[in-house]
């Protein structure tokens, strides 16, 4: 299995020479003491302690070098740069943050914030960009005395509190107050967090599609690279689910709508979680897709992008000291189709000439 990487508060702007480095991971899915969930966690081999391994590995990632002796030669060389942030692809806890009344699962949320809130002791040392998944939004409360949407409201409130407003701990540039999707720019690369999936309308959630259409027109119409993050994947019968009546499934129609919105932009990567196991990089409708595995298996992805190449490698943390194994089967590198320079946080006014 594989492992992945993160980053936090807004660091110094990236330059054309350096590009940007970040970590993507998903599914820490803390079980804690949720009495009716522990057996399910054990059944699938999930261990909260493995997330501690992962955090230790992420915090040590700059001790490692980009491989130079694999079948693929990465565009980037030398040691892995300090990540600008860690992007989370959902399922932070097993059952809606543990805000479930009599379930004795409230410690799930404490486990999460202790490890993924930048600035806390023993937490990741980089800013964390939060995304939500099905376990964050679909677990029904078992205490009839509580409001039905209590836990969902708390989870969405957390996203807003972390990323919205001038005093937000991890400030982003554009957030949709209705769908809670948001975006930001690093070194001329546009990054978008879509939570469960682009266009989700379950549980009375307004679709992110109208916001996304305008967001891309405003922030990515110049041809800069665009990267999307969400919880559900793109292979039919896999991440979208084989159970036809599943409320969590995103439909082929919703997938078509999302594909139509992103069609005219320079999309260089789609990152997702949900499946828990590591999948080699694959393609969906011509786009490169990355699913590095689950945080509760000690896995994450390291990503580097500059004005020449995009490089991705998956990682697996192998012990509680945070020793990291980079996974050769995951090696991915491609030329970036982009004529503009990475300068600071924006695109240079002068396009780069064709080679």
Can you tell me about this structure?
By secondary structure, the protein is α/β, with parallel strands linked by helices. The chain has one domain: Purple Acid Phosphatase, chain A, domain 2, CATH 3.60.21.10. The chain has helices spanning 38-43, 48-59, 107-116, 134-137, 150-163, 209-219, 252-262; strands spanning 20-25, 86-88, 128-129, 174-175, 182-186, 189-193, 226-230, 267-272, 279-284, 287-291, 299-305, 309-317, 324-335, 342-343, 346-347. A seven-stranded mixed β-sheet has the order 4-5-6-7-8-10-9, with no helix packed on it. Mean pLDDT is 82; it is low at 1-17, 237-245 and 343-355.
List the helices and strands and how they pair.
Blueprint: E1 20-25, H1 38-43, H2 48-59, E2 86-88, H3 107-116, E3 128-129, H4 134-137, H5 150-163, E4 174-175, E5 182-186, E6 189-193, H6 209-219, E7 226-230, H7 252-262, E8 267-272, E9 279-284, E10 287-291, E11 299-305, E12 309-317, E13 324-335, E14 342-343, E15 346-347
Parallel strand pairs: 1-2, 2-3, 6-7, 7-8, 8-10
Antiparallel strand pairs: 1-11, 4-5, 5-6, 9-10, 11-12, 12-13, 14-15
Write a short abstract of this structure.
The protein has 355 residues and is an alpha/beta fold. The chain has a single domain, classed as Purple Acid Phosphatase, chain A, domain 2, CATH 3.60.21. It has helices spanning 38-43, 48-59, 107-116, 134-137, 150-163, 209-219, 252-262, and strands at residues 20-25, 86-88, 128-129, 174-175, 182-186, 189-193, 226-230, 267-272, 279-284, 287-291, 299-305, 309-317, 324-335, 342-343, 346-347.
